[in-house]
């Protein structure tokens, strides 16, 4: 906190020897002339006197005092007015220091509204607090959001608490023992106190969740970054008690219809307080899940979230009505209560940022969306995702739709605790089940000690692939860089495990390298994700770079599909074998104990219960496809569709190149080959799939032997096949639970549009080349789908 | 007579640094001036000494006063031709504010008995640049100043 509120001695002339930090009241010597003489003696050849370590960065980092653009404590005086008048020329406008942080309700600068607060004022203050909360969750720092509310400062909250606590004095405490303590203060005052308490409580809660999840590096969410003292609650549950008391008080008072003219304002306060309370309860619960009652706690949190969302939705029309008849006095109160400049002295050398809050309706809608995210991104995933495949499918939208930082932090916090996935499932068992789902790993391999060891080894990398989806898109790409190295190293270990298992199992049949295939397929998926992200984040953006990206993706997706086909073949062979055995020896295959529920505690061990394995084997190998089989099949179809889409786009680009519609890049300091090497640098150390060089790309994309017509037809066929695969997948999708879809319906429509649009523009290209035109305008449109471009020809 | 001797002789009658320089110039200390000429310096004697002084000042804590009355304290690391100064190492800016600037909406500001209060505000910066055009005064602790003078005297002797 800036040191403040020390009255200056006479206010006009500061004493010559200014009290300073390094020695109290030390005698000072005026060296102004000396310094100016030295400065004026400097020349262009030697323009500065500086320390040896002084460098350009130091000079750039220094904040220019009094500069309006750099110095955040130069605030236009007109900003302090209730109704800003027409501003003078910017240069002439007087600049003043931001309003100092309040020292209490009776602040010397301006006493905060307290005695004069009305219910209408309290309603709008509560709404503004929700806007601050939304701003915090959208990425503003605490000084730019929560603490722009002057009531939220520690000393003010303490002051309010002192004035409103019915048991502050000894007399009041004695009265409280004898009878129910009466409430102090007006309803408006208590509502403002409750609403502000909730804002501070939620801020601290959000900060705790984000810091513990550790997927966000910056400290903007922390009050300690800015040395802001947070109000210390006197006891556990203090805030909740205050809020519940106030809500019931409002409910009671609102029945007295003649008492208050403004029922809308009362209802608005009640709904806002209830919303914040429900959100606080849900987030605290989700941040502390543990033990055997996880599902009940999550269900309760889900109910709180839904209730919070409903209350906020109900408040929207009420606030709209209140806004229409908002009085001028309310506007004055809000100007006095919320100040976007008050914390500027705390930000030090940070550049000037204009704080802009959303409009009330937009902020409320955004808040509703964020609250809804907690439901589908966290609660539903914890309750419904009961297999590795389903966890991945449910977390993908969290990643692709860039869910809020709070939501993603809650998801990561709960991803692995009490040594279980979501506190419920053993990770090695999940991996085994997932591998069985894909390729059927036989019991003879699952029960071996080397399998146990390798599964434990796999746990961390598999966990990382899940955590990856909770990072934001930019961080995902950097994290993938590291993960690719880990998975590449796993390949050899997987191969050793497969060889050892094959020998130990005494099997005379052909080696089926289940672990190797699994590790390689996961590696390829990560590689594909890496390239995909490069396109989404516009790191690969022009025609040439996109051609490379889609060409490489075509290769990666083809390799991935090869691996998946291998796994499907293993599973098919195993199915055939089991059913042949069943026909020959029906008695030996029947029976088997049902798998017991419950969690595996302690070290991550693979279940070695034969009964459990046998039951799972039969489920995996039944002729009738299970729901998870259909989910995997849909995912497979989409992978295939994307492969053909990439192929079609590459051929389209090559056609455009042949038609002379794409200009060749020319560089002075780099080359296409260097760009290629840089873009795929993380793949160099991966042995399988092998790294493709720039020469491989040139050979692979050389279609000079094909005529333009053939090339266009090949491209058109690729889009056609992609479209038909998408349509096929859509039919299966209708049978599935929407939460387990590998791709959202909206995205499916987008992919279809890309296929159709590109086919149409291919025909346009045909017309142009027939007509001999080479000057058509080429536009790459990523608006339809962020990973696949539509190539438009004008 | 070297600088240290001059300073010692002035101890009974302390004078500011600028006066010392003027005194040196007026003493026509041929040995000292000869040394400067031999070094090839084309600077006036006082400027050269001022430059040496400022070079010795690097890394010391100084207090700058600006034209609006605020002071900025920090460790001196750079000055340029326009007297722009860069300070670092927990720079503290202190200034006086007037409550009247924030009282546009305060009812009591309309009252004739309203008194404008002044408060001292401090803020901490990592690094700051003081614009030379707004610089009014630069101050240094006396003990540090004496230390620098002694150092200069040693160098010249």
List keywords for this structure.
heterodimer, A: 794 residues, mainly alpha, two-stranded antiparallel sheet, 26 helices, 10 strands, 3% strand, globular, disordered N terminus, B: 157 residues, alpha+beta, 5 helices, 35% helix
Query: What's the shape of chain A?
Result: globular
Give the structural class of chain A: mainly alpha
> What distance lies between the first and last C-alpha atoms of chain B, to the nearest angstrom?
9 Å
Distance between the termini of chain A: 59 Å
Classify the beta-strand content of chain B into a percent band: 25-35%
Domain NAA35-like TPR repeats (chain A): 378-791
Subcellular location (chain A): Cytoplasm
Organism (chain A): Nitzschia inconspicua
Domain NAA35-like N-terminal (chain A): 48-232
Characterization of this structure:
The complex is a heterodimer of chains A (794) and B (157). With 794 residues, chain A is mostly helical. Among the domains of chain A are: 3-51, no CATH class; 119-375, no CATH class. Chain A is built from 26 helices and ten strands. Chain A has helices at 32-40, 56-61, 119-137, 154-164, 170-178, 187-213, 238-254, 263-287, 294-324, 328-337, 360-384, 388-400, 405-413, 427-439, 443-446, 449-468, 473-504, 514-536, 543-584, 586-589, 610-620, 627-658, 672-679, 694-700, 708-733, 745-771, and strands at residues 6-7, 28-30, 48-50, 63-64, 75-76, 95-96, 416-417, 420-421, 778-781, 790-793. Chain A has a two-stranded antiparallel sheet with strand order 5-6. A two-stranded antiparallel ribbon of chain A has the order 7-8. Chain A is globular, with a radius of gyration of 33 Å. By secondary structure, chain B is an alpha+beta fold. Chain B is 35% helix and 32% strand. Chain B has five helices and five strands; from the N terminus they run H-H-H-H-E-E-E-E-E-H. Chain B has a five-stranded antiparallel beta sheet. The radius of gyration of chain B is 21 Å and the shape is elongated. Strand 1 of chain A pairs antiparallel with strand 4 (118-130) of chain B, so a sheet runs across the interface. Chain B: Residues 52-140 form the Sm domain. Chain B: This is LSM domain containing protein. Chain A: Residues 48-232 form the NAA35-like N-terminal domain. Chain A: It is found in: Cytoplasm. Chain A: Its main location: cytoplasm. Chain A: This is Acetyltransferase.
């Amino acid at each position: 906190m800036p040191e403040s509120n020390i009255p200056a001695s006479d206010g006009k002339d500061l004493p010559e020897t200014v009290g300073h930090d390094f020695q109290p009241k030390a005698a000072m010597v005026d060296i102004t002339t000396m310094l100016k003489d030295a400065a004026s003696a400097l020349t262009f050849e030697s323009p500065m006197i500086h320390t040896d370590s002084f460098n350009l960065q130091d000079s750039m980092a220094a904040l220019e005092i009094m500069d309006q653009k750099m110095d955040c404590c130069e605030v236009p005086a007109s900003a302090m007015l209730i109704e800003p008048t027409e501003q003078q020329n910017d240069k002439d406008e007087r600049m003043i220091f931001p309003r100092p942080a309040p020292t209490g309700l009776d602040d010397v600068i301006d006493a905060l509204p307290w005695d004069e607060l009305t219910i209408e004022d309290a309603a709008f203050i509560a709404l503004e607090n929700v806007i601050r909360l939304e701003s915090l969750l959208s990425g503003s720092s605490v000084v730019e959001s929560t603490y722009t509310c002057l009531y939220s400062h520690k000393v003010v909250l303490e002051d309010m608490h002192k004035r409103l606590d019915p048991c502050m004095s000894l007399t009041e405490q004695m009265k409280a023992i004898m009878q129910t303590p009466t409430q102090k203060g007006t309803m408006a005052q208590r509502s403002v106190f409750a609403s502000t308490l909730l804002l501070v409580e939620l801020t601290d809660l959000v900060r705790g969740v984000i810091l513990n999840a550790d997927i966000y590096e910056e400290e903007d969410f922390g009050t300690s970054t800015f040395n802001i003292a947070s109000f210390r609650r006197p006891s556990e549950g203090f805030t909740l008690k205050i809020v519940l008391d106030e809500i019931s008080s409002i409910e009671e008072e609102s029945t007295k219809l003649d008492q208050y003219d403004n029922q809308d304002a009362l209802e608005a306060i009640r709904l806002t307080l209830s919303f914040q309370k429900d959100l606080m309860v849900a987030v605290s619960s989700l941040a502390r899940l543990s033990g055997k009652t996880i599902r009940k706690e999550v269900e309760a949190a889900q109910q709180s979230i839904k209730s919070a969302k409903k209350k906020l939705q109900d408040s929207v029309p009420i606030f709209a009505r209140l806004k229409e008849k908002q009085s001028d006095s309310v506007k004055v109160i809000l100007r006095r209560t919320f100040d976007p400049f008050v914390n500027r002295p705390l930000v030090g050398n940070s550049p000037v940022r204009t704080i802009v809050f959303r409009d009330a309706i937009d902020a409320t809608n955004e808040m509703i969306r964020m609250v809804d995210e907690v439901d589908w991104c966290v609660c539903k995933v914890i309750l419904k995702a009961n297999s590795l495949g389903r966890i991945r499918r449910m977390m993908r939208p969290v990643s692709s739709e860039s869910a809020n930082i709070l939501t993603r932090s809650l998801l990561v916090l709960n991803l692995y605790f009490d040594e279980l996935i979501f506190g419920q499932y053993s990770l090695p068992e999940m991996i085994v089940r997932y591998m069985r789902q894909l390729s059927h790993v036989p019991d003879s391999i699952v029960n071996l000690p080397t399998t146990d060891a390798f599964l434990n080894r796999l746990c961390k990398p598999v966990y990382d692939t899940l955590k990856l989806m909770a990072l934001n898109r930019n961080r995902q790409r950097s994290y993938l860089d590291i993960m690719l190295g880990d998975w590449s190293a796993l390949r050899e270990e997987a191969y050793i495990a497969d060889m050892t298992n094959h020998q130990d199992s005494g099997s005379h049949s052909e080696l089926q390298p289940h672990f190797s295939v699994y590790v390689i397929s996961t590696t390829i998926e990560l590689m594909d994700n890496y390239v995909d992200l490069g396109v989404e984040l516009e790191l690969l953006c022009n025609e040439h770079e996109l051609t490379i990206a889609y060409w490489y993706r075509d290769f990666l997706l083809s390799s991935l599909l090869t691996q998946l086909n291998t796994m499907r073949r293993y599973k098919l062979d195993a199915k055939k074998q089991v059913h042949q055995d069943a026909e020959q020896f029906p008695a030996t295959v029947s029976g088997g104990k049902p798998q017991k529920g419950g969690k595996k505690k302690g070290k991550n061990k693979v279940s070695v219960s034969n009964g459990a394995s046998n039951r799972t084997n039969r489920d995996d190998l039944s002729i009738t496809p299970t729901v998870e089989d259909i989910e995997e099949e849909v995912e497979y179809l989409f992978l295939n569709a994307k492969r053909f889409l990439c192929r079609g786009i590459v051929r389209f680009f090559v056609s455009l190149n042949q038609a002379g519609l794409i200009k060749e890049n020319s560089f002075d300091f780099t080359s296409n080959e260097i760009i290629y090497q840089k873009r795929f640098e993380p793949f160099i150390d991966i042995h399988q799939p092998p790294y493709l060089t720039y020469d491989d790309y040139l050979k692979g994309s050389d279609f000079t032997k094909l005529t333009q017509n053939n090339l266009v037809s090949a491209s058109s066929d690729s889009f056609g096949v992609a479209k038909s695969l998408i349509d096929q997948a859509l039919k299966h999708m209708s049978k599935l639970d929407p939460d387990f879809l590998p791709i959202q319906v909206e995205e499916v429509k987008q992919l279809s549009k890309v296929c159709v649009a590109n086919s149409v523009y291919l025909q346009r290209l045909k017309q142009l080349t027939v007509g001999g035109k080479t000057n058509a305008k080429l536009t790459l449109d990523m608006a339809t789908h962020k990973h696949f471009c539509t190539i438009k020809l004008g | 007579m070297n600088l240290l001797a001059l300073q010692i002789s002035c101890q009974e009658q302390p004078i500011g640094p600028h006066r010392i320089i003027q005194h040196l110039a007026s003493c026509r200390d041929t040995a000292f001036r000869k040394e400067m000429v031999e070094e090839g310096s084309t600077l006036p004697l006082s400027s050269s000494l001022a430059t040496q002084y400022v070079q010795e000042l690097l890394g010391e804590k100084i207090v700058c006063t600006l034209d609006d009355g605020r002071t900025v304290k920090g460790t001196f690391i750079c000055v340029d031709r326009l007297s722009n100064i860069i300070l670092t190492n927990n720079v503290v800016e202190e200034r006086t504010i007037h409550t009247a600037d924030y009282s546009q909406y305060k009812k009591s500001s309309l009252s004739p008995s309203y008194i404008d209060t002044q408060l001292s505000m401090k803020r901490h910066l990592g690094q700051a640049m003081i614009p030379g055009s707004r610089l009014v005064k630069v101050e240094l602790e006396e003990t540090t100043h004496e230390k620098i003078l002694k150092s200069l005297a040693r160098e010249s002797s």
